[in-house]
Amino acid sequence: VREAAKACLDILVGVTRCSTTALLLPSRDRLLVPIFGKPLRALPHNMQIGNIDAITYCLGLDPPFLEINEELLRLLSEALALADAEDQALVNHPTQVHSNTASLTHLRHVCIRMLTAAMVRPEFSDAKNTPTRARIISVFFKSLYHKSVEVVDAANDGLKQVLLQQQKLPRDLLHTGLRPILINLSDYKRLTVASLDGLARLLQLLTNYFKVEVGRKLLDHMQQWANPQLLQAAAERSIEDMHEIKILVAILEVFHLLPPSASVLLDDLVSSVVNLEVHLCRRESSPFRKPLFKFLNRYPTESVVYFAERIESAHYARIFCHAIGSPECGPLRGALVTQTPLLVSLLSDFCTSVNDASAMSVDQADTVDTPSAAPQSELAGNETLYKRLYVAMSVAAVVHGCLAHTPRWLDEHSSLLNALLDAWAAAIRVGSQPNRSSYLARPLLIEHVIRSLLLATQAVANPPAMLFKLLEVTGRSSGAVDTSFVFRYVWDDLIVRWPISKRREVLAAFLPRLTEGSASDESNAIVLQHLINPMVATVFTLPSIAIAPGIDAVSESDVVNSSEQRGAELLRAPVL
Fold this sequence. Notes:
The structure is a single chain. By secondary structure, the protein is an all-alpha fold. The chain contains 28 helices and no strands. Helix 22 packs antiparallel against helix 23. The longest helix has 31 residues.
């Protein structure tokens, strides 16, 4: 009803073209006397809520409708007492608390909203109102730890308005407001989801008042809550609803709000998350990653360098890949693009290892003086090679995940494209090792390179050079991984749909490869088989092909004549 009345007043304002204050002034006494006439505590909860909501509305009117007088200050004091009181004090009997929870929560909410509306008024900033303002700010702080999200949001908005008016809070008031959360931080058993949410909101408002030591204390509490036996037992069931898991997630939600110098906590924080996931037997995802990603987004460059240095660790690599592929990690992907030389270096290390292993094999084949030393040195070389193979696979997975959101990355950084192609060529030369723990790294590396090339090719409208390279890599990898998705894309999205003009462009780009020797016979055969031959053949077999973009396909009665026309258009000079 109250919202409907406000909407009606807005309509009247639009019709009469005068302010709400001017509309209400003639009825001011009739409206306010019943509200100021009785103490709030003498009224039932629903009437208290209605009266407070009405005053809040009036306080927000411009020009001002209410004066800051004794009557209003008395009502503010009553609302302040209601907001500060415990639930038991607001009902006639303690047994009524449970049945009145919703109305009590709503009452606190409207009280805080009215106090916020009063704090915004410039005339309320007089020195004589300083004690009342201090009490209101204390209630805002206290309400941040309330169990109701509605009340917490209202208190948070109130503190925001206070900080907009005064940049610094009095020290004694600040210490009083922060004391409850500091007491909770002293003992891990006192931590609750509500108190940690209150701490997060305080950090958003008062970041400069906190030190990094808060984060170190929270890390210590995480270790206390992360009981290995408990986590291992929880690994066998759903963990999202467990109290301990909720506490751990709430702790992690605080870190991205810490002061800028909290980047020093990166290693400890990521290591803690890895330890939690290992004990919970979580590999691909967990409730801890989303809050961790917020922290990584806060320090994107440091995070990219940190994970790149530890990418040979499987769990760190999986977290990094998950973060890069997550929609909310835009800052992290932006930092990754700026660190392209670092990724190129990691891929180059793998290529160097393959070349060194090949050279070593040749040298050992030519050496007959020390046959007993050959197997040991070859094994040592292979150990290094397969470690770097796993690193290269992880880098390719990261690149693939990033390209899904920034597909023009390879087009703008040719060094990374060349490094990926070199890593693919090196992986093709590496033999399959089914007995090794990293036996999946080789096919995964090849698949990530192919999918990355496909994304990059699609992003730049399938230029012939990129398309030829994609088909070459795909065709030569068909024995190692499933590449049918690429050939299906080439047929369904390109060959069947291309107009004659695009086919001429591709054909004109391919023919010089046959005479210049810029590509191997194997590569040319692959492109001919999967692109050129079907592309030319469909010109004569598919009547739906247009001569140029925007020109409709010919009718079925003109198939024969149009086929000849399309064929002539495809093969006219300067193609042949």
